[in-house]
Every structure is written in structure tokens, then in C-alpha cells.
Design a protein that fits this description.
Helices cover about 40% and strands about 15% of the residues. By secondary structure, the chain is of the alpha/beta class.
Length: about 400
């Protein structure tokens, strides 16, 4: 275990990851592994990850977007276009378990650090590659962006207010985030196999495939019927009522997705007579008459506040919740109790908040291990850990092979 790994906690303590990733999907993979205890060294180009320039907003000149995606990592700024930079990277790989990269197809090979080259010297390396469309197939050379992946994966065709409205993307960059989570899952599977066999391998996933995984329900419908589902607002393609309703002062969601919850809902809102309405007798009927159902229920919900309805629905055992904005979500007692909003100390910004680890472990709890690094903040320490003496480090800095930023 390196000095940098001492004091970390989580099930992945002892794992060392080299992250050659930028923007979002690759960094999501890295932050998931870091939060679970892995030491993640983020290797950035000399001018830094492009997310550093994704402003506003910024705090003391540091991009809020960059700080969110790269908390808990150590930072090295390195010129990979120079042979000396590649030599530094290869030395780091000598003690690494995982490499994460999300460059365009062919870039790593042109730099001389593609998997087929690296596995000759590092046969146990888990090499994780994220891209727009995957490393095989007719689109392998295309650049990938969340918006494009949402459109091509079918997500935009089922997101929006309803038929006849313009296609709409999901608000968050769901294919970027999901690709990062899938990559972390793949890394852990490959690492488990390596512990058994001693052999590394390539883990390959993409934004396109990440988007496709979000169409499980819609794909099931299309495969069974031959009809591609369209947008339904907040409604569910298979169950009703399961959508958002406006109240006197906001919006709430109702999850009466089975017959028991349907009858509970009718009791909670005082509309028991609808149980005898043939249009709404069973879920099959309610789905066939979903719009009529929503129009029948809507006036009742507008008569009282969200708080009043949520109290009634909870007392009646009906799954429901408020529609919160992001600030309200950050203040929600459940988010706080689950450590999903935590504080970290940033070298320049000072005390700041970030999001927490969404997976809990009973024996080896993980956590956010610190704020994001300044550009090259840990360059000197990382090189020292790799066996470079002070004179060699000073030479690399002087020649611009490595960059460091002091607090």
C-alpha cells in the first residue's frame, strides 16, 4: 500500500487506478472507485481536463463542474505527447491495477499506450475504455456526446410531454453518468477475475449502450408489439396511475402501480366510487384509459397543498413524494441521513459541499476522500512515490513534461 492509500477506507483500499479520462463518463468511473477506497491518480494534459473550463459557475476560479467530477482523486499534469511523459506513465502503471481512458478511437494507440502494447509489460492490467459508441462496430470512430447518445439510443423519443411535441433530452447527462457507472461495474468484475487468474483484460462500454439500458421497459413493449412507444410526460408505460399531479402549491408524484395501491389511493383521496368505474377497474383498463384517469384525478389534487396530500397518502400507505428542486433535495433529511450531501476541504476553495457515495457497505464503508485536485497539485508527490528523486522531478518540471500548481 502506498503512502497515499494510507487513511483511505472502503472495500477497494489497496487498488490503484490511473485515470486518463476527461469531461464526464471516465471521471464518473474514477470517482466511484475513489469513493469506494481506491487510490485514483488523475493524469491530465498540461492545460488540464476541459471540464476545468466549464464555467460558470466557479468558486475562487475553480470550476464547480470539475470539482464535482473529480473529488477524492490525486492530480498529475503530464505531457503524454512527449516520450518522457509516456515513460512517466509507464512507470506509474508498474504499480497500478486499473487504467481508465475515454479518448477517441486510435488516440491511445498513436501514443503507444494502447492495450495490445501495454499488456506485453502489464499483463494483469485492467484496461477500461469508455467511448461514444464502443470500440467495435461501424460507429467505433465517431465522437460521442450525451445529447447524441440520448437521441440515438431512443431516450429522446420517449422523453417529453406527449405525442406531437418536440423530442426532449433527459435533464441530466444520463448516458455519460450511466456509462461511468457501468464502467466501474465492469472494472470490478474484471478485477475480481484478475484476483482469481492473475490476468487483466479490456473493459469496453459506451454512452450509446448506457442509453440503451434505460429503455428496458420501452424495448420490452416494442419487442412484444412491434410498436415503438412515445413520450408520456411523467407517466409510466406499463402502470397507472403512476405520474406527477399538480397540487394547490406545487407537484407531487403518485406511485399507485398495483391494484392494492390503487384501492388505497381511492380511499386516501375520498374517491372510492371510482372502484366501480369499468374504465379503471384493473391496470389493463387504467392504461387503456390513462388520459381519462389523469383528468379525473387531477381536480382533486389541486384542492389541497402538497404537504396535506403527502400526509394523507403516507397515512393511507400510498407511495408518493414531492417534486423537489435540486436545492430542496440537498436539504432533504433523507439525503442528509444517507450522507449524499457531504463536506470536503478544497486546497483553494476551503470548506465546500459535494455529493456522496450512493452505495453503502456494512463492513467496509466508503466515503468521499477529499476534494478535487488543483491542476497538477500532487505531481511532485506522485512522482516521488514512483521512485523519482528531487533532481529528476525538478528536471521534468523545468522541461515542461510535468506541471504542478501550488496552493
Amino acid at each position: 500500500m502506498t503512502a497515499a492509500q494510507t487513511g483511505r477506507r472502503g472495500p477497494l483500499v489497496g487498488m490503484r487506478v490511473i485515470e486518463l479520462a476527461h469531461i464526464m463518463a471516465g471521471p464518473v468511473c474514477g470517482l466511484m472507485l475513489a469513493d469506494m477506497g481506491a487510490e485514483v491518480i488523475k493524469v491530465e494534459k498540461l492545460e488540464g481536463d476541459d471540464t476545468r473550463r466549464t464555467v460558470p459557475p466557479a468558486l475562487d476560479g475553480e470550476s464547480a463542474a470539475y470539482m464535482m467530477m473529480n473529488r477524492g482523486k490525486r492530480g498529475l499534469s503530464l505531457d503524454l505527447k512527449a516520450p518522457e511523459g509516456i515513460a512517466v506513465l509507464r512507470r506509474l502503471l508498474g504499480s497500478a491495477d486499473v487504467l481508465i481512458e475515454n479518448y477517441r478511437a486510435g488516440t491511445m494507440e498513436r501514443l503507444g499506450i494502447g492495450y495490445e502494447t501495454l499488456r506485453e509489460d502489464f499483463p494483469a492490467l485492467v484496461y477500461c475504455s469508455l467511448s461514444g459508441f464502443g470500440r467495435t462496430g461501424p460507429y467505433a470512430d465517431r465522437a460521442g456526446f450525451d445529447l447524441v447518445a440520448q437521441g440515438m439510443s431512443g431516450l429522446m423519443s420517449v422523453t417529453g410531454e406527449g405525442p406531437g411535441r418536440p423530442p426532449m433530452k433527459c435533464g441530466p447527462p444520463v448516458t455519460d453518468i450511466t456509462a461511468g457507472i457501468l464502467a466501474a461495474m465492469g472494472v470490478l468484475a474484471a478485477y475480481t477475475n484478475r484476483l482469481r487468474t492473475g490476468q487483466g483484460q479490456v473493459v469496453d462500454t459506451s454512452l450509446f449502450e448506457a442509453g440503451i439500458t434505460h429503455t428496458y421497459w420501452q424495448s420490452a413493449i416494442a419487442m412484444a408489439t412491434g410498436i415503438a412507444p412515445g413520450p408520456m410526460g411523467s407517466a409510466h408505460p406499463l402502470n397507472a396511475p403512476y405520474e406527477a399531479f399538480e397540487t394547490a402549491d406545487g407537484w407531487i408524484t403518485i406511485g399507485a402501480a398495483n391494484q392494492k395501491n390503487w384501492t388505497r389511493l381511492l380511499t386516501a383521496i375520498g374517491m372510492e366510487d371510482l372502484a366501480e368505474d369499468a374504465r379503471f377497474a384493473h391496470n389493463l383498463d387504467r392504461m387503456a384509459n390513462r388520459i381519462d384517469l389523469a383528468e379525473t384525478l387531477a381536480p382533486a389534487f389541486r384542492r389541497h397543498s402538497s404537504a396535506e396530500w403527502l400526509a394523507r397518502l403516507e397515512a393511507g400507505g400510498v407511495p408518493a413524494g414531492p417534486v423537489l428542486d435540486v436545492n430542496a433535495m440537498h436539504r432533504d433529511p433523507q439525503a442528509i441521513a444517507r450522507d449524499m450531501v457531504v463536506e470536503v476541504e478544497h486546497t483553494r476553495v476551503g470548506r465546500m459541499t459535494t455529493l456522496g457515495l450512493p452505495v453503502k457497505f456494512s463492513r467496509t464503508p466508503g466515503r468521499v476522500h477529499g476534494a478535487a485536485p488543483l491542476l497538477g497539485e500532487h505531481s511532485r508527490a506522485i512522482l516521488a512515490d514512483a521512485g523519482y528523486d528531487e533532481a529528476a522531478i525538478d528536471d521534468l518540471l523545468a522541461r515542461g513534461i510535468v506541471r504542478e500548481t501550488l496552493a
